[in-house]
């Protein structure tokens, strides 16, 4: 089983392959002359649907990272991570749900895929709440 800190590092590290894929995609377009280096405006939808899903998967990961980091680090600092066997399981489940959400997001924008992504998000949020409740007890 992964420790909560390993799960946190995995969650943060998950952003690296996502941003690497975005960088490769953009670099390829620029090197092939299909886009200029400044044709990727932040916060504005651009590129193909698949590219934009990859972009959103990366941003979704970064948006939730501070929440996950806060509850995991609070659990480690207070000793809750060691005192309650559910803590590492919830941390690992949050990481798995994040990875599933990102993978499904990148693969498809279909209605079933959106439902799977939403279920994965709800799983993460439930894990965050569970971790937080363990910390405050």
Structure description:
The protein has 137 residues and is an all-alpha fold. The chain has one domain (4-136): Membrane associated eicosanoid/glutathione metabolism-like domain (Four Helix Bundle (Hemerythrin (Met), subunit A), Up-down Bundle). It contains five helices and no strands. It has helices spanning 4-31, 49-78, 80-83, 86-107, 111-136. The longest helix is centred in the middle third of the chain and has 30 residues, at 49-78. The two termini are 23 Å apart. The mean pLDDT is 96.
Q: What is the secondary structure topology, with strand pairs?
A:
Elements: H1 4-31, H2 49-78, H3 80-83, H4 86-107, H5 111-136
Helix pairs in contact: 1-2, 1-4, 2-4, 2-5, 4-5
Low-confidence stretches: none
- Computed Rg: 17 Å
Based on the structure given, which CATH architecture is correct? Up-down Bundle
Give the strand content. Answer: under 5%
CATH homologous superfamily title: Membrane associated eicosanoid/glutathione metabolism-like domain
User: How helical, in percent, are the residues?
Assistant: over 70%
Query: For this structure, what is the CATH class?
Result: Mainly Alpha
Assign the structural class, choosing from mainly alpha, mainly beta, alpha/beta, alpha+beta, or little secondary structure: mainly alpha
Give structural attributes.
elongated; Four Helix Bundle (Hemerythrin (Met), subunit A); mainly alpha; 0% strand; 137 residues
């Amino acid at each position: 089983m992964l420790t909560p800190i390993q799960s946190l590092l995995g969650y943060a590290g998950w952003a690296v392959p996502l941003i690497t894929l975005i960088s490769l995609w953009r670099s390829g377009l620029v090197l092939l002359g299909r886009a200029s280096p400044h044709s990727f405006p932040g916060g504005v939808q651009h590129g193909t649907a698949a590219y934009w899903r990859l972009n959103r998967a990366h941003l979704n990961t970064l948006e939730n990272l501070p929440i996950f980091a806060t509850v995991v680090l609070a659990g480690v600092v207070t000793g809750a991570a060691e005192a309650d066997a559910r803590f590492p399981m919830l941390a690992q489940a949050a990481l798995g749900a994040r990875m599933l959400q990102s993978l499904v997001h990148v693969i498809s924008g279909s209605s079933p895929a959106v439902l799977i992504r939403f279920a994965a998000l709800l799983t993460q949020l439930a894990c965050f709440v569970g971790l937080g409740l363990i910390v405050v007890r």
